[in-house]
Design a protein that fits this description.
Helix Hairpins, 4-stranded antiparallel sheet, alpha+beta, 3 domains, 30% strand, Elongation Factor Tu (Ef-tu), domain 3, single chain, 9-stranded antiparallel sheet
């Protein structure tokens, strides 16, 4: 006869309540309660993994922001979004009338100085050696000035600093824009190896450890993957660029801007303030600037008792 049967109890409610039956019911009810209590205690003090379900974004590990070194107006764009470029590939050309005028003047001065030197050298005697020496020094100074201006003018053509795909969307919108020195204009990255950025709350960050298992799914394609945490969650102040990328892409944070955000910005209290990183395999093709993923992190082992205690403490 089973230890406990709902059907039996339902039927027994209609049966005569004999002393033997009441004694049997009392004993088995106590046994049932004791068994349930033991199971509950075991479950409360048996450690299990802390589960975190959230979203993140994958960006190329080798992601470079290419900035202009001289101010000017964007005159011509040589590449398009998704195009593969090598190191020193010309990306765009700036127009700066002041630098171009200085280069023209420096070229004229260099030609004049060179001509004066050759004329003096061909017509002078040994007694005019001091004049020749002076002409040589003047020519060297003019030549040095020319090459310094030329190096500055060469910066008007922005070139790639590393191989990768052009990840900046809608490049043509930049044409005609005036930019100042130091403005980051383009992103270049290689999608072969990606970095998964996972914004977390402070409470969640405490439950993540190195090598914590991560299972994810690409939101766009539905494909699944597995990886592990390789960098413990850090406060967003240490990774402002990563934080803002994650915030405005997947979590409703600050609106994206054309320039690279490095300064502090006011954040809502609900925004994540920690970021964990994990490596993830990518494809060596341009897909899109940033790829969103749904992830499950299996964090530290915790007791259900501690979770219950924390929950009760929050209610009180």
């Amino acid at each position: 006869m089973p230890l406990f049967s709902f059907k039996f109890l339902a039927a027994s409610s209609k049966a005569p309540q004999t002393p033997e039956f009441l004694l049997w019911k009392k004993r088995h009810t106590k046994l049932l309660i004791t068994t349930a209590a033991i199971i509950t205690l075991i479950s409360l003090f048996t450690p299990s993994r802390y589960i975190i379900k959230t979203q993140g974004i994958a960006i190329p590990q080798n992601l470079h922001f290419i900035s202009v070194k001289i101010e000017g107006q964007i005159e011509e764009i040589f590449v398009k979004t998704g195009q593969w470029v090598n190191t020193q590939t010309p990306l765009l050309k700036l127009s700066n009338s002041k630098v171009q005028a200085e280069l023209t003047a420096a070229e004229t001065d260099l030609q004049r100085s060179r001509l004066n030197f050759f004329e003096l050298q061909s017509s002078s005697t040994w007694s005019d050696q001091s004049k020749i020496t002076e002409a040589i020094e003047q020519f060297k100074a003019t030549e040095a000035h020319y090459y310094s201006i030329k190096a500055l003018a060469d910066e008007l053509v922005l070139k790639s600093s590393s191989p990768g795909y052009i990840l900046t969307p809608d490049l043509q919108r930049l044409k005609g824009t005036f930019v100042t020195a130091g403005t980051p204009l383009l992103k270049v990255g290689n999608n072969t190896h990606l970095k998964l950025l996972i914004p977390l709350t402070e409470a969640e960050a405490r439950q993540v450890e190195l090598k914590s298992k991560v299972r994810g799914e690409w939101i766009a394609t539905g494909k699944t993957f597995s990886t592990s945490i390789e960098l413990l969650p850090q406060r967003k102040a240490l990774f402002p660029e990563d934080y803002f990328e994650a915030a405005f892409t997947s979590f409703g944070g600050p609106a994206p801007r054309q320039t690279f955000a490095t300064q502090e910005e006011s954040l809502e209290k609900s925004y994540p303030i920690y970021i964990a990183e994990a490596p993830i395999a990518g494809e060596n093709t341009f897909y899109r600037e940033q790829m969103r993923v749904q992830v499950i992190i299996y964090g530290k082992k915790v007791l259900a008792f501690n979770r219950l205690k924390n929950f009760i403490s929050k209610l009180l």
